[in-house]
Amino acid sequence: MAWRIENGLALIDGRWSDAPLAIAGATLAPDGGAGAPALDASGLLILPGIVDLHGDAFERHIMPRPGVRFDTKLALRDTDRQLVANGITTAFHGVTISWEPGLRSLDAARAFVSMLIDLRGSLSCDTRLHLRWETFALDEAAQVIRWLELSPSPILALNDHTTGSVLKGSIARKIGQMAERSSLSREGYMALLDHVWSRRDEVPMAIEAMTAAARAHGNVLLAHDEASPEERLRFRALGAVSSEFPLTLQTAEAARAAGEDVILGAPNVVRGGSHNGALDATDAIRRDLCTVLTSDYHYPSPLHAAFKLADGAPDRLAAIWPLVSGNPSRVARLRDRGSLGEGHRADLILVDAGDMAHPQVVATMVAGKIVYASRAIDRLPVPTLASAAE
């Protein structure tokens, strides 16, 4: 299908353009799209689609309350609708593989991965995997390594929530929530945690094997919740060249000093701070210590975070938008999207920014196909030879 989007204001190469935007098939075309059906984008911004590197809000579609589960296929389809309605055109679902039973168990991950493989071709959003391997999930590591060979290539993140739970760090206060998620009593969860902790000497070797496999298969490797510059140095040596949710400013500074990307959550910006006392993302962005924002646990947040940071200034929005589109595309090594450049995938969104504090996605296009529209999109009449002669 060919399209010509007219009368909107498009963000192209960091600047706003009112020139028509042409789409031929799945990509952005160079010739203006003369003769193609025209979409009237009057009063709308045309923005590159959001690329979400880390989102696990789908878990709430599977288990909206502790112990209350819904069908995975239903959850994935409902999540897909929420993604495109919030302008997310590429999403990496953060599937946690832990030693816990329940929602984040290996069995639950197997069911999810299998269903995503089956459904992926029918989903509107380009939906991929972000494998969040808990480094104490020793018995589950072999399956994760096999999943690294999937196509499209999954992102792999190294997570360690076990140490913080045992040593009474920032994660310890979540023990009750973790137990509920696992369908265990608090006492049962603590007993299991003690057993897992007893195998801690095996963890470094497992991390070495996992990261070696990721390097061999060419997976993007992230390190989650790094607590110090020393940890950043250690995981960098293993191949993790981006820092995901660093816990301290010093860690973020170490990553940025090395020219690396720092990934934080967009809900942090929208809410005005972290819900668990971690880095303030708005402050980090102002200091150039954050280059990527993700949905984390709330799919509307990337769109709303960008507009909140712009504070009503279009030029500021143009500078901020790469945090949710171009920069995550670069981290994920997806060179065919993230901007409205000629030859890129036609992944874009039309946004009503009449109220800059509450932008609304009017339409979402993925690979040249309109997959979401919140209201009727007017088609301009296509000129005919007769009308042109007049």
UniProtKB/TrEMBL annotation:
<dbReference type="InterPro" id="IPR051781">
    <property type="entry name" value="Metallo-dep_Hydrolase"/>
</dbReference>
<dbReference type="GO" id="GO:0016810">
    <property type="term" value="F:hydrolase activity, acting on carbon-nitrogen (but not peptide) bonds"/>
</dbReference>
<dbReference type="GO" id="GO:0019700">
    <property type="term" value="P:organic phosphonate catabolic process"/>
</dbReference>
<dbReference type="InterPro" id="IPR012696">
    <property type="entry name" value="PhnM"/>
</dbReference>
<dbReference type="InterPro" id="IPR011059">
    <property type="entry name" value="Metal-dep_hydrolase_composite"/>
</dbReference>
<protein>
    <submittedName>
        <fullName>Alpha-D-ribose 1-methylphosphonate 5-triphosphate diphosphatase</fullName>
        <ecNumber>3.6.1.63</ecNumber>
    </submittedName>
</protein>
<keyword id="KW-0378">Hydrolase</keyword>
